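ok so I'm stuck.
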Amino acid sequence: MNLNNIKQNLETKIVMNIGDPIGKTNAPRAYNALFSELDMNAIMLPAEIKKGNLPKFLEACKTLGIRYFSPTMPHKSEIIQYLDDVDEMSALFNSVNAVYIDDNGVSHGVGMDGKGAITALLDNGVELENKNAVILGTGSISGVIGLELALNGVKKITLINRTEQKLYEVSEILFNNTESEIIPLILSPENLDMASKDADIFMQCTPLGMAGYPHTHEYLGFVDYLPQDSTVFDVIINPPDTPVIAAAKKRGLKTVPGMDMLAGQMSMIFKFMFGIDLTQKNKEACINELCDFLGVER
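replied:
not stuck anymore, here's the structure
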């Protein structure tokens, strides 16, 4: 990637992307594309930080004056115990993916997965107030998406998951912290069909169908039960046309792909870290960079 704007001097903002492993991360492509687009003197660098070394990493950041980093798996939950300040929503679901260390050395962590999903929906003109949403999957991303949906006025959230324990854990947190009606359902074709019949928004939040993932959806017939004016959302970035998105497109339903969620996250992160409001043009540049890198069409 050509980053001629990077001066790499004492004023350069260094942003770390940390995980274990870190080899397949897409974050540096997204951040550095935006730094170039915005002509910012900043760069994101990936680093593999082994589990258990987060205290040393934080100390190194403060010593070197590195004030920004983005944790990915498995550090999104573990990092919370070492931060000075974490927003309530991220703490509820133990997930932080943006950290800023202020001038006083105080570390602030925020999880942007849910906010990115909501931004993607709103940017695509999806109405949330008094709507019914279905969330397929109850992994780490699903709870924060559910909370954001509730905060934005969604009246009913149906959660569907194969594993009963995780399903009820996430459902209980949402029940205790939102005013939305929360309905947990065990994954089955019958429950998918039933929940889809009155779904205004269907949120696919599992890794099923992701490039390189060994499993995909066993059943997609539920898409035929979705109302014609419903919206189908998928968290997966690659491929853009996931099995669920492709099935929804075939029916002529409105779709919101994972790339839009990523752009929504970046919008929230740049506001949090740098105080910058991204334009739609900025977000498109970020998406185009990732599509070119992944070899997929927008």
